[in-house]
Design goal:
Radius of gyration: 20 Å
Strand content: 15-25%
Distance between the termini: 42 Å
Largest sheet: 6 strands, parallel
Order of helices and strands: EHEEEEHEHEHEEEEEHEHH
Length: about 250
């Protein structure tokens, strides 16, 4: 029986690595598959892992219809036994419903990989629909870590090292330090994605990044940058656990 399986986790926990491994395992057994991704850190039409692995994929857009993708490929004589769907949090809810239909009516296995919630702890529409429709939802066992060493459970967006909880839901980026970038039209102040080439702008533009935090430090909005500042001001490690609590995240 074909299945719709959703593999979820925070950033930096190996989702894309597992996606590529699963494609290898299935293709090595003679099964035909299609790889999909959207907004991958390496650019369009690509699935990439932080370990350095990458492979071409079909770029998912708002116009993508997974039913048509599979049936057209089969009509052309190509076997389609499974789909690898990376960055599935960015898919529309109706596209997830198309994936469910592909599983139920065409007997194609669908393995979807994605982040469950955004930097505001709100569910992505694609992830929400996957949780509602998937035959199985599996949390990846490779644990991302907060700067304090605890298990990271939340994704945080930072601007110049300071955590923010407002802005567009989708701003493509990566975990770690990021170069300054220019703000796209309609984006919230400090939320950026296209690189600048002006030396003056690079010096003044805010640096936008992402990091994973444990719930304690997410709720207190203490990023790695802020933790370093606190430690520099006070040598007592306990200070980091008694820092002021911010108002509730909306």
């Amino acid at each position: 029986m074909a299945e719709l399986v959703f593999f979820s986790g925070t950033m930096d926990c190996g989702k894309s690595t597992l996606a590529l491994q699963m494609d290898y395992n299935h293709s090595a057994r003679g099964r035909g598959g299609i790889l999909f991704s959207r907004n991958d850190r390496a650019g369009e039409s690509m699935i990439s892992s932080r370990l350095g692995l990458r492979t071409p994929a079909v770029e998912v857009t708002d116009a993508t219809d997974f039913w048509d993708e599979v049936t057209n490929r089969r009509r052309a004589g190509f076997p389609v036994d499974y789909l690898i769907c990376d960055e599935a949090q960015f898919y529309a809810a109706d596209q997830v419903e198309q994936l469910a239909r592909v599983v139920d009516e065409l007997c194609v296995d669908v393995f979807a990989f994605g982040i469950t919630s955004d930097f505001r702890t709100r569910l992505f529409p694609g992830s929400q629909r996957l949780i509602e429709l998937a035959d199985r939802t599996e949390v990846l066992q490779v644990r991302a870590l907060c700067w304090c060493g605890r298990r990271a459970t939340h994704n945080a967006r930072t601007v110049d090292g300071v955590m923010v909880v407002e802005g567009d839901q989708v701003v493509v980026g990566d975990v770690g330090k990021h170069a300054p970038a220019a703000a796209p039209a309609g984006a919230a102040p400090g939320v950026t994605e296209e690189p600048l080439f002006s030396a003056e702008a690079v010096e003044t533009a805010p640096v936008v990044g992402y990091e994973t935090l444990c719930r304690r430090h997410y709720m207190r909005r203490v990023t790695a940058h802020q933790a370093e500042s606190i430690s520099a001001a006070d040598d007592s490690p306990a200070t980091l656990d008694v820092c002021a609590v911010h108002p509730r995240i909306p």
